[in-house]
Amino acid sequence: MRFPEFTEEWETKKLGEVATNVMYGMNAAATNYDGENQYIRITDIDEQTRLFCPNPLSSPDGELDNKYLLHKGDILFARTGASVGKSYLYNDKDGKIYFAGFLIRLNVRAEDPYFIFSQTLTEKYQRWVLTMSMRSGQPGINAEEYKLLPIVIPSIQEQEKISSFLSLIDSRIQTQNKIIEELKLLKITLRYQLYEQILNHENEYVQLYRLEY
């Protein structure tokens, strides 16, 4: 399925051909959030949405180096453990973030970053991760191996149109999820109030019964 105005063949390239500034994150422990400098670790990337969802917010402990700051076009990849392959695309709205050592950063500028990132959300990518990570006998993919990830590349105009369409769907999903969470909270509140009312009525009945007898 494609948008009808695009007919050119898609190229297949390796991620390393379109990404630059490949590096590992900072080797620092997390500490209490200082109000400015956020720290992203593997566990701060939501399993389902791949959004930055820290709970709680934290900051890197120790001296800060700006080379570990995230910028537009940065994509993070988990390099080890059960979450190997998990990815995150930096969003300016997430603020000032440093990335931790078990993550690998690649920056995409010549192509549409969201289009490249969206290919890490496919079953094809998950199969690649499974194959690549098991070569060493334990889950893990290093920076050089991530650079070998095959990706498809249409024209930049088609990339941007696809990204815009998928981003719109993501936005709708997030809105619906927020509504669902609010309804769940409302249900809990109403249920609590309802049961409290029933218990209060029962207590009043018991007290009245004791007074009469």
TrEMBL record:
Gene Ontology molecular function, alphabetical: DNA binding; endonuclease activity
Domain of life: Bacteria
CDD domains the record matches: RMtype1_S_Sau13435ORF2165P_TRD2-CR2_like
A Pfam family reported for this protein in Swiss-Prot or TrEMBL: Methylase_S
Keyword Glycoprotein recorded: no
InterPro entries assigned: Restrct_endonuc_typeI_TRD, Restrct_endonuc_typeI_TRD_sf, Type-I_RS_S_subunit
GO biological process: DNA restriction-modification system
PANTHER family per record: TYPE I RESTRICTION ENZYME HINDI SPECIFICITY SUBUNIT, TYPE-1 RESTRICTION ENZYME ECOKI SPECIFICITY PROTEIN
Protein name: Restriction endonuclease subunit S
